[in-house]
Structure formats: structure tokens, C-alpha cells
């Protein structure tokens, strides 16, 4: 009966209610085996439980930071710029957000992504508008998260230093980053 339900479940691409119904039919031992199987089969499940069961996610965060860094600076010795593709960077952050347990880790990764965009532009000169727009959108998103978690004091110096580095960049990058910080973080702090 459970196998028939599982087949129907998979064929329907069932929602949360159907999943809960299926899981409620399993014994504790069957649930444990199911989680073990998922953990063996899917790396993101493995990473999720590693994050969930650990108080220190710095190694996991470092792994995703390294992937971001490689997208901007793939080979340090060659001096060639990376592709800095928004789609790749977006996927790295989305994958991390799915497994991350702590919002502070997500803040750290998104802020790092924007910092690498600033370093990339400082190193290789003015980039196209889409490059800056993508970084601006992520900085706005991270400012919202910083304000939501009341971490303005924790990130203020770091963000201000990064924003200051962009003062001579094109496409209104400096103004947009500065506006995001003050709109979300300064206004929130002064409430």
C-alpha cells in the first residue's frame, strides 16, 4: 500500500500535504532509513544536515565563497578575469540558501558576492550595466537581511568600506549601494 501511495505521490508531484500524509504512514525506523537514503543520495541533503547539526558552518560557507571567488577570479596567476556570470552566482547563492540554517551565513555569502563584484570591477575596470545591476540587487537584498536581523552595527564598517571603494565606478553604482544601506540599515537603526 505504501509503495502504491509513493508512486501516486511521485506521479502527482505531490505537495506538502501529500508528503506529510506519506511520512505519517511510515514507522520511526522507516523514516530513519528514508532520511539516511536521502542523505547518501543527495549532496544538498548531506550539506543541509551537516549545517543543521553543526554550530560552526564556517567550512560550508567557505566552500560556497570559494565557488563565488572562482567565478570572478578563476586563475590568479593568469591575470585573466573570470566570467562573473550572474546566473552562476545566483545559483551558488540559491543552493547555499536552501541548505543554510542560519540567516547570518546567508548574509555573509551575499555580502561576499557583492564584495567580489567590487574587487572585480576595481581590478578590471568598468563593466557593463547588467553586472552592476545584479550586484546592486544583491546588496539591497543583504541590507534588508541585515536590518531584519538588527545586525547594522556588525556590518556597518565592512559595508561602508566597500561602498567607499565604489565612489569612482560607473553606472551610478556608488549611489545605489549607498542608498540601499541608508534606506534599509540607517533608517531601521534610527527607529
Helix/strand layout:
Blueprint: H1 2-12, H2 16-24, H3 28-41, H4 43-52, H5 58-72, H6 86-99, H7 103-124, H8 129-148, H9 152-165, H10 173-189
Principal-axis shape: globular
Secondary structure class reads mainly alpha
> Beta-strand level of the residues, as a percent range?
under 5%
Helix and strand run = HHHHHHHHHH
Number of strands: 0
Distance between the termini: 57 Å
Task: Summarize model confidence as the mean pLDDT.
Answer: 87
Give a description of the structure:
By secondary structure, this protein is an all-alpha fold. The chain has ten helices and no strands. The protein starts with a helix and ends with a helix. Mean pLDDT is 87; it is low at 1-9.
Core attributes:
mainly alpha, 10 helices, 76% helix, globular
